[in-house]
Every structure is written in C-alpha cells, then in structure tokens.
Amino acid sequence: MDIDTVEWTVVESAIGPLLLAATGRGLVQVGFHADAARRERMLDRLAGRLGAEPVERASGRLAEAIRLLDRYFAGEALDFDLPLDWSLTTGFNRQVLRELAAGVPYGTVVGYGELARRVGQPGAAQAVGAAMGANPLPVVVPCHRVVESDGGLGGFGGGLETKRQLLALEGVLPAPLF
Length: 178
Prior knowledge:
This protein is α/β, with parallel strands linked by helices. It folds into 2 domains: 7-73; 91-169, Orthogonal Bundle (Arc Repressor Mutant, subunit A), CATH 1.10.10. It has helices spanning 36-50, 63-73, 91-103, 112-118, 125-133, 160-169, and strands at 7-11, 18-23, 26-31, 55-56, 110-111, 146-147.
C-alpha cells in the first residue's frame, strides 16, 4: 500500500464505536460514534480532504493503534506512542495539538489558557478551544484533558459525557454512578 492510501476500520470501545483511519505516514483520524450512517459521512469527508478513497483495513497499519486503544480502555495508564499523520490540521491548530500530545500526560489536565501560553500565545485560550474542537485524533491526541481554568469541563466534540468517561478512566474525575 502506498503512502496516499487511507485505511480504515471501526473498533468498539468503552465510549462507543470509533472509526480509525491511517495513511502510510500514520494514524490520521479517530472518529467518535461511528455508526453506519456517521461512518459513511466521515469516510466521504476524509476522502475529500486527503484526495484518496479510504479502503477498509488492508495492510495491518492500524494494528498498533487498535492494540493501544484496547489497553487504554482496559484501564492501562499509557500515552499513545504512534506515528501520526498531521495532514488534517495546519498552523496554530497543529502547533497546539502537537504540544497537547507531547506535554499533557495520562491522568493530568491542562487549562485552555495554559495550553495557549505553552505555544507562545497567552491570549489565545478561545483559539485553543477551537483547535480542540477540530482535533482529528481525539483520545490519541488527548483533547479530553483540556479543561476550563475554573475546573469546568469545557466542550468536547464527542459530547461531555464522553469527556467525563475518559477523564474518569484516567482517574481525573470520579467514575460515573450508573
């Protein structure tokens, strides 16, 4: 498979089905709530943005991402050491997401403003929020670990309940009582 081929699969997780997609450069997308209808929309959008028709799991390039996600959702404290393809993000968003991936370990949180400060833009907390919302690699690039300075959860593309579940899994919040 060449570098421009996009492979995908759907894996079950504690937060519902996740669509995983990878190019020859690395994991390029993690999509929440990947039921059949949403999966088709995600794949169409991915094809348009990357200029390649996604093919269902063909070469095994998703195997390590699947293995690490299984371990993560089983409660193992780990950070994702995977090759990532940053093709779906640029500029400030890419800078913020790279800092997030490298500088906010499992079981910790960071404020939007603090993350903005870390990338040299101390007044850009709202822009950091927008970067989190545009994160093509949630869970792996842990945007769920970014919270408001007053302790509020802030937003989350996968829904606030999903964010609560991920933070509880990492021991940052108490586990839900249901």
